């Protein structure tokens, strides 16, 4: 199905049906609103149509990451200069009302009445539906997209992944999969938090950013297996895939790709 005119809610709902979204799905969505072209009603209509597609028994999930809640000078160690201290003091504490930087569609879901949000300061997730509380209930500060996170919960619930106008470089489940490999790349997260009423900076380990190196390769290889459903909606290429199937494939493949190269 290809649609290049102005998209409305009815057209979007038909497209979600075409790609295979079903009532009762636990559906984790990464979306770029601008990728579609013009959508009458904007992000709110996209969210409404997705909720209609999963129905009253389904749950809609989206990353609501907040990279603004981070150390603006991560390379500065020791006692900071006044300028560095001022920049760090200006970093907001995370709350459930902190705006996401994951785009208009994720923000529309975050603002929707009844939406719940996990509490990780940088990689929170929002969910709306009957199992939303199970999705957001647990999220470790370290490895915030790992097993003890909403991503692990979506997998356990038999969830699926919908990529709307974005590629696998935006597919957080590939970070989740990489973290299952003992060879995973590592980075340090640093963010402010209130501990016993005092603002402090916390440091936690996590899987490093891929920077478009391995994830597009692994995503393309997974799609060659023929189990990914794709459709053009407006100008956006959209993909629907099973979370557990992707993670099983990507964990093994990333582990292979991350093996050290041995010289002969």
Which labels suit this protein?
264 residues, alpha+beta, seven-stranded mixed β-sheet, two-stranded antiparallel sheet, 9 helices, 20% strand
Polypeptide structure, described:
Helix 2 (42-54) crosses helix 4. The longest helix is centred in the C-terminal third of the chain and has 15 residues, at 243-257. The chain has one domain (9-257). The mean pLDDT is 96. Strands 3-4-2-1-5-9-8 form a seven-stranded mixed sheet, with helices on both faces. It has a two-stranded antiparallel sheet with strand order 6-7. The chain contains nine helices and nine strands. The protein has 264 residues and is α+β, with helices and mostly antiparallel strands. Strand 8 and strand 9 (236-242) form a beta hairpin. The radius of gyration is 19 Å and the shape is globular.
How are the SSEs ordered, and which strands pair?
Blueprint: H1 9-19, E1 26-31, H2 42-54, E2 59-63, H3 82-89, H4 104-111, E3 116-117, E4 125-128, H5 132-136, H6 150-156, E5 160-164, H7 172-178, E6 186-195, E7 198-207, H8 215-223, E8 229-233, E9 236-242, H9 243-257
Parallel strand pairs: 1-2, 1-5
Antiparallel strand pairs: 2-4, 3-4, 5-9, 6-7, 8-9
Shape: globular
Strand content: 15-25%
Please state how the strands of the largest beta sheet are arranged side by side. 3-4-2-1-5-9-8
- The total number of structural domains is 1
Number of strands: 9
Portion in helices: 25-40%
User: Which structural class do the helices and strands define?
Assistant: alpha+beta
As an assembly, this protein is: single chain
Mean pLDDT across every amino acid position:
96
The run of helices and strands is HEHEHHEEHHEHEEHEEH
CA distance, first residue to last residue: 51 Å
Question: What kind of sheet is the major sheet?
Answer: 7 strands, mixed
- CA-atom Rg in angstroms: 19 Å
Number of helices: 9
Low-confidence stretches: none
């Amino acid at each position: 199905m290809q649609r290049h005119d102005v998209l409305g809610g009815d057209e979007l709902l038909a497209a979600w049906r075409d790609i295979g979204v079903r009532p009762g799905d636990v559906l984790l969505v990464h979306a770029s609103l601008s990728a579609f072209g013009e959508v009458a009603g904007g992000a709110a209509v996209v969210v409404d149509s997705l909720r209609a597609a999963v129905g009253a028994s389904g749950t809609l999930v989206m990353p609501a990451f907040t990279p603004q809640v981070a150390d603006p000078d991560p390379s500065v160690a020791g006692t900071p200069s006044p300028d560095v201290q001022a920049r760090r003091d200006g970093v907001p504490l995370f709350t459930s009302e902190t705006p996401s930087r994951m785009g208009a569609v994720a923000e529309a879901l975050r603002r929707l009445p009844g939406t719940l949000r996990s509490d990780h300061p940088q990689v929170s997730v929002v969910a709306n539906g009957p199992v939303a509380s199970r999705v957001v209930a647990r999220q470790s500060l370290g490895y915030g997209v790992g097993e003890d996170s909403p991503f692990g919960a979506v997998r356990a619930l038999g969830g699926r992944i919908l990529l709307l106008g974005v590629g696998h470089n935006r597919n957080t489940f590939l970070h989740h999969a990489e973290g299952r490999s003992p060879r995973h790349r590592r980075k340090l997260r640093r963010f402010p938090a209130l501990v016993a009423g005092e603002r402090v900076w916390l440091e936690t380990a996590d899987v490093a950013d891929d920077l478009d190196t391995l994830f597009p390769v692994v995503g393309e290889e997974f799609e060659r297996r023929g189990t990914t459903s794709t459709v053009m909606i407006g100008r956006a290429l959209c993909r629907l895939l099973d979370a557990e199937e992707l993670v099983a494939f990507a964990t093994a493949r990333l582990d292979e790709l991350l093996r050290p190269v041995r010289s002969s």
